[in-house]
Specification:
The protein has about 300 residues and is mainly α. The protein is built from 15 helices and no strands. It has a single domain, classed as MetI-like (MetI-like fold, Orthogonal Bundle), CATH 1.10.3720.10.
């Protein structure tokens, strides 16, 4: 009895798990998104194998070499070189590492904090709910990019600082969605039945409520990865992301803006990499949302 509604709330999801791969292959946009994500992950993980160059090594003799097949290109540098002769392909591969690390780790931190605070706020209510939600309102009162700029200007640039700042400031969307879901779940019959048989609040939250909010959290996380990658590129472009000697797509954009006329590829290639990665994540996120949403009938 205690698990009756919980089982019913997930009954629609069980057949979907059995046909998850089939549903994925049936969606051309989701397959495209997955392929893009896998290619970026492959490029990041195997960067030392797919290119034998150092992303920081300069070669002034080969500076501003155009990508193949444009005039002035060199097959040795398929995507061309930058203003100091560094290989664009190598920097693109190593830059994917930073984007993925920042995107996924920051989302894990934000998702964990937001989910915990949302569970506590929605389940217990009262002054605890008021305090957490007022903190969320205060943070939402500041534009996201301005908040990032202010915090990073104080703590300084760097990969660890960037991940922590993005993670610690990205919890609000998770907490608000989780809170609303928990408020609707805490009065359900299976929760009341668990209370009746003497289950502790911690057990009710972990075993009865948490499994029912995983879907919305996963959906938010899938879209947050894309927005976090854009935030990292924006902050690196402004000089407040990772250190300048670290190859990232945002820094490549920043360094190439001065050579837009003479070296259009310096901004176009990393810009396309960011756009395609974000597009791939969003397309897969759209499919995932439709799969997890219990209102979707297959």
């Amino acid at each position: 009895m205690a698990h009756m509604d919980a089982d019913n709330s997930t009954a629609i999801l069980k057949p979907r798990r059995n046909y998850l791969l089939k549903d994925l292959l049936a969606s051309s946009t989701a397959v495209f998104g997955l392929v893009v994500i896998l290619l970026v992950i492959f490029m990041a993980v195997f960067a030392p194998i797919i290119t034998d160059r150092d992303p920081k090594t300069t070669n002034l003799r080969a500076r501003l070499t155009a990508p193949v097949p444009f005039e002035g290109s060199n097959p040795e540098f398929p995507l061309g070189t930058d203003a100091v002769g560094r290989d664009i392909w190598t920097r693109l591969a190593y830059g994917a590492r930073v984007s993925l690390i920042v995107g996924f780790v920051s989302v894990m931190i934000a998702g964990t904090i937001g989910t915990i605070l949302g569970l506590i706020s929605g389940y217990f209510g009262g002054w605890i709910d008021d305090v957490i939600m007022r903190l969320a309102d205060i943070q939402l009162a500041f534009p996201f990019i301005l908040l990032m700029l202010a915090v990073l200007a104080v703590v300084g640039p760097g990969l660890k600082n960037l991940i922590l700042v993005l993670g610690l400031t990205g919890w609000v969307s998770y907490s608000r969605v989780v809170r609303g879901t928990v408020i609707s779940l805490r009065e359900k019959e299976f929760v009341e039945a668990a209370r009746t048989i003497g289950a502790r609040d911690s057990r009710i939250i972990v075993h009865h409520i948490l499994p029912n909010i995983i879907g919305p959290v996963i959906i938010i996380a899938s879209f947050s990865v894309a927005s976090t990658i854009i935030a990292e590129a924006s902050l690196s472009f402004l000089g407040l992301g990772v250190t300048p000697d670290t190859p990232t797509w945002g820094i490549m954009l920043s360094e190439g803006r001065e050579y837009i006329r003479d070296g259009w590829w310096l901004t176009t290639i990393p810009g396309l990499a960011i756009a395609m990665t974000v597009l791939g994540i969003n397309l897969l996120g759209d499919w995932l949302r439709d799969e997890i949403d219990p209102r979707t009938i297959h």
